[in-house]
Amino acid sequence: MHNIWQQQLKQALSGRTSEKLRQHPDFSHAGDGLFKTVITDEVNTAIKESSQPHVLLNQFLPINRETNIHPDFNQDPVGDHNALAQQGIIHKYHGRVLLVASGSCAVNCRYCFRRHFPYQKQLASRRNWQAVVSYLHNHPEVHEVILSGGDPLTLTTQSLTELTDRLIDLPHIKTLRIHSRMVTVLPDRIDGEFLNWLDALPWRKVLVTHINHADELTHKAMGSLHRLKQHSITLLNQSVLLKNVNDDADTLINLSHKLFDEGVLPYYLHLFDRVQNAAHFEVSLSRAQRIYARMRSQLPGYLLPKLVKEEAGEHSKTPLI
Ligand SMILES: *Cc1c(COP(=O)(O)O)cnc(C)c1O
Ligand code: SF4
């Protein structure tokens, strides 16, 4: 009964696919203990094929520096907790709500700003889906539902169908947005069943991928993006500006062009959120702005992502120019 992608996900979550990573000389069990090492075969492939494997390794390999504690970093840098409207619903911005639809991901990114999020207690899952529907019913100003997590595409298509079936009767919902890293890290997730589900939805559909470096675009990942494009999904990408991953203008300019080749528009370039245990990824604001100025001088406006920061209590992401 398990699809190929479900088997791959299971292997990733069980730690089997991270064995190679564990043999790396910089691997630290101390870091692993704070936030499990999870990686997929597709990322292993990307590492193998990349001429600069550190741009991928640094995103997924736990290292000793993770255990450093910094007073200016914390467990909820973007104020998600205070913005929780009710279990699993983060309603921070006008007109759109974010559902924490899944607590797991196919990879664990070491810089993840939700690495300390209490997923067990704060999930909008099958079990409390009725409460989500009631919330949306009482908020007719909401026209966009964002499935996030964790990674919502770790849910089976059957679960996704059960969720969206309940939303069909809410006339004010116009757009369904999915935030997922699966398209590139576990591209087999974009299978026929999933595409059929998307096709049957009555709303505008947006999928926001999470790609930080062009070397994440494996052959298979590009195939999945191509399939999505054929099914009339708007494809956007968000990246995080990360030290020793993508903190130079040429890398990001190249990423924008490569994304566009695959039918994806750059959406956001996030300044790293100051989440505890990940301080070594931080790029200073002044350096971020220098990198960004060069990107702007080289890219057409439509390939320039918005440089933003997520701040607690704000009504939108904060632009940094
Ligand atoms: C980023 C974010 C959104 C979406 O914001 P957009 O500017 O529409 O992309 C919604 N809710 C929360 C809590 C967010 O962090
Ligand atoms: S895929 Fe997204 S939510 Fe999951 S660990 Fe990476 S950054 Fe965090």
From TrEMBL:
List N6-(pyridoxal phosphate)lysine occurrences by residue.
K317
Q: Which residues bind [4Fe-4S] cluster?
A: C105, C109, C112
Q: Which UniProt keywords apply?
A: 4Fe-4S, Iron, Iron-sulfur, Isomerase, Metal-binding, Pyridoxal phosphate, S-adenosyl-L-methionine
Q: Name one Pfam family in it.
A: Radical_SAM
Question: InterPro entries, alphabetically?
Answer: Aldolase_TIM, EpmB, Lys_aminomutase/Glu_NH3_mut, rSAM, rSAM_sf
The reactions it catalyses are:
L-lysine = D-beta-lysine
Q: Name one GO molecular function term.
A: 4 iron, 4 sulfur cluster binding
The record's listing under SUPFAM superfamilies reads:
Radical SAM enzymes (SSF102114)
Domain Radical SAM core, by residue range, is 91-303
Q: Which cofactor does it need?
A: [4Fe-4S] cluster; pyridoxal 5'-phosphate
PANTHER family named among the record's database cross-references: L-LYSINE 2,3-AMINOMUTASE (PTHR30538:SF1), LYSINE 2,3-AMINOMUTASE-RELATED (PTHR30538)
Q: Record's family?
A: Belongs to the radical SAM superfamily. KamA family.
Q: What is this protein called?
A: L-lysine 2,3-aminomutase
